[in-house]
# Entry
Amino acid sequence: MIALALVEPRPPAQTATHRLQPGDASVIARGERVYRTHCAACHGARLEGQPNWRERGPDGRLPAPPHDASGHTWHHPDEMLFKLTKYGLAKVANMKDYASAMPVYEGVLSDEEIVAVLSWIKAQWPADVRERHDQMNRQARP
Ligand code: HEC
# Structure
């Protein structure tokens, strides 16, 4: 994926922050249901993503990346993951013509469902990756 580094540093101070809750059993149970229904078809039942996910297809679009430790989902802080899922890549990266196969979930999933599914994804990462992600969140927050 491209250009996200440009917008990564921190969300505008006035926006609400959405913290993932990978340690909350009821949140991740809900998140798993959301994942199976809305995300698994592309990102894989085991978070493995689609084959050759780093290479654009003939339509110029990237395949779905894995959400496990081999992908770069964990390179983005909570708020960035929330925005990518809710508003889509084009909007978050501020490139309105960017063609992405990733759907926009605004109006489809509630904010709580988005936090839940991302929390479940995080709960699947190995402890050291979760710890690095926690560290990144601490740096990203004002
Ligand atoms: C129709 C296929 C499809 C579905 C369904 C889908 N995604 Fe995606 N997703 C993609 C693709 C393709 C990308 C990479 C897009 C790009 O870079 O252009 C992506 C990228 C992402 C990213 C950015 C990952 C990164 O490493 O930068 C996140 C976060 C994400 N998806 C979350 C979700 C969640 C959560 C769901 C379910 C609620 C979901 N996606 C459902 C196709 C899909």
Notes: DSSP finds seven helices and no strands in the chain. The radius of gyration is 14 Å. Residues 1, 38-39, 41-43, 62-65, 71-73, 76, 81, 84-85, 89, 100-103, 105, 117 surround heme C (CB under 6 Å). Helices lie at 4-7, 25-38, 40-43, 78-87, 89-92, 111-123, 127-140.
